[in-house]
Design a protein that fits this description.
heterodimer; A: mainly alpha; MetI-like fold; 2 domains; B: mainly alpha; globular
């Protein structure tokens, strides 16, 4: 095999005796381009074709802004809840031994496996005023179904496994001797958790948070049943995209989608910076 | 670890254990909170699905499942999964082969691109195809002139499903094949096997459980996808209605038994998926460990 001397020292691919590089890479790139890249760039192209004034008019529309605020706000709250309870669930699953632990562990993946529409109608039935949980909350004056709180409940359901499954493997790797060393040096349990365990878990917790948050922002199926979908109050951004599409207002649908994508990527960037910071801080 | 000095230290300093693990009452409280949280947020929704489906007896349940619209929704869901899952399997194997077996420029970028569909809202996944193939879309006029129907028909549903389930198989296989390295294949090749034989008799048996794991997750999502499919389907009963969309229609018609009966089938699928997934993790945990948990 002769390799053309393109530039000294620069090679697209390291030589290998294994065949099939051209075929598999070629097919993968073609499939990726056709299914993902062309359709996605169509979205970018369509929103760029809108022009700045039209784009801004849609983005600054009060209904759009409210929908974005509700989507990002509820997803943030749900991710915070999931960080607290997801980390606790992971801790209990990793550190404690009790009957039914395996089943509880397997159950954590339910939101990955259960179709979102099923989760949506099930949660709505539970939290409706006459539902099993809803009727208990009614006397306390708490309404969940058909309010923004309902959106948070649905997103907690959807996001939980993201936190548990990112934190759990890191917890399993923690060496107990580190805790023992801290204990012999006179640290109490609280100090060990906050100063020894938490720093090691922080990057995983941040990753879990961002995965749950990103998923929550885009979630549609489980939310639309429980949200009530009142414009300005409990209407999420993905639903507004669907509504604009049904009105044949492709421009507005495209613009809202582009804003959501941009905000999601911005958030990924921030999370990456936070990761770098936490690695530097806690080494 | 087995150092006798450390052992005796541990024995003599039982009081230290309070700092190494939580005290019993705190343990009990933490466990109670975690399990109560799981019960309320995961178990109750699952129970309520079956409870509502059977609320009016088994007769009403089977009747709801035997309606022609429900039957056609089940058929369509099976058809869509039967097309999109194999295509993503072929892609996943091919991408994993290229990425795991070779070193080339831009590999990390390519891996990131494969994960892209996970960070896009399902609604947007559907929207991109509407913008491409819809009446006002880039290819809309051309498709219409040639009498090709993609949107609000089965091809659109299949495309949207492929989009959202795109990364599942590739994501399982890439780290697994990277971990296994090229040694086995190189040995097979040096013994005179063809590239295809090396793949079929060496690579595939090495990754079969990881592959099955990916297929399982891919299939669960393909059969359960709602948002993306909802945007491209047009909701035509008996024609472009998948099971999750049919659940929505029945629910919005206040046909609770019907909606939850169809939902119970999907919940059953989820349970079977979870059981198989757990079994795979228990039996072949080491083999698929590289990729567990997403």
């Amino acid at each position: 095999m002769t390799t053309a001397p393109v530039k000294a020292g620069w090679r697209f691919k390291q030589p290998s005796v294994i065949p099939g590089f051209g075929l598999t890479l070629g097919f993968s790139l073609a499939y990726l381009t056709l299914i993902i890249l062309i359709p996605l760039s169509g979205l970018v192209w369509r929103s760029a074709a809108l022009g700045w004034t039209d784009f801004w008019a849609i983005a600054a529309d009060r209904r759009t802004l409210n929908a974005l605020k509700i989507s990002f706000g509820t997803a943030f709250l749900a991710a915070v809840v999931n960080v607290v309870f997801g980390t606790l669930v992971a801790w209990v699953l990793v550190r404690y031994r009790f009957p039914g632990r395996r089943i509880a562990d397997a159950m954590v993946d339910l939101p990955f496996a259960l179709p979102t529409a099923v989760a949506g109608i099930a949660l709505t039935t539970l939290y409706a005023p006459n539902g099993w949980i809803g009727h208990l909350l009614m006397p306390l004056g708490i309404k969940v179904a058909y309010t923004p709180l309902g959106i948070v409940v649905a997103l907690v359901f959807i996001g939980l496994p993201f936190v548990v499954r990112t934190v759990q493997p890191i917890m399993e790797e923690i060496d107990k001797e580190v805790e023992e060393a801290a204990a012999t040096l006179g640290a109490n349990r609280f100090q060990i958790i906050t100063r020894v365990l938490f720093p090691g878990l922080a990057p995983a917790i941040i990753t879990g948070f961002s995965l749950a948050f990103a998923r929550g922002v885009g979630e549609y199926g489980s939310v639309i049943f429980i949200a009530g979908n009142l414009p300005f109050k409990s209407e999420i951004a993905p639903l507004l995209i669907v509504i604009r599409l049904e009105e044949y207002n492709y421009e507005a649908a495209t613009a809202i989608a582009a804003i959501m994508l941009a905000l999601s990527f911005l958030m990924l960037l921030v999370v990456n910076l936070a990761q770098t910071w936490s690695r530097k801080r806690y080494g | 670890m087995a150092d006798p000095e450390i052992k005796s230290y541990e024995l003599h300093h039982e009081s230290q254990s309070a700092a190494v693990t939580e005290s019993r009452p705190i343990k009990a409280v933490l466990m109670a909170i975690a399990l109560a949280f799981l019960a309320v947020f995961l178990l109750l929704p699952l129970i309520v699905v079956f409870h509502e489906a059977l609320a009016k007896g088994i007769g009403a349940y089977t009747e709801a499942l035997s309606s022609p619209d429900t039957r056609s929704a089940i058929r369509l869901t099976l058809l869509v999964a039967a097309i999109s899952v194999p295509l993503n399997v072929i892609f996943g194997i091919s991408a994993a082969w290229a990425i795991a077996k070779f070193e080339f420029k831009g590999k990390a970028f390519l891996t990131t691109l494969i994960d892209l569909p996970f960070s896009v809202s399902p609604v947007i996944s559907g929207l991109v195809y509407v913008l491409l193939f819809g009446a006002q879309g880039l290819l809309g006029a051309w498709l219409k002139a040639h009498g090709i129907v993609i949107l609000f028909a089965v091809p659109g549903i299949v495309l949207a499903t492929i989009f959202v389930t795109f990364p599942f198989v590739a994501r399982e296989l890439i780290p697994l094949m990277q971990e296994q390295g090229n040694g086995d294949e190189e040995a097979a090749l040096s013994l005179g096997a063809s590239g295809w034989q090396a793949f079929w008799y060496v690579t595939l048996p090495n990754v079969k459980w990881g592959l099955l794991y990916g297929v399982l997750l891919c299939n669960a999502r393909a059969m359960g996808e709602f948002g993306a499919v909802s945007v491209v389907s047009g909701h035509i009963r008996g024609l472009t209605n998948t099971m999750p969309l049919h659940v929505e229609i029945l629910y919005n018609e206040y046909n609770a038994v019907g909606a939850f009966a169809v939902a119970s089938l999907l919940a059953g699928l989820a349970l079977v998926t979870l059981v198989l997934k757990t079994l795979l993790e228990m039996r072949y945990g080491a083999e698929i460990a590289a990729t567990r948990g997403h």
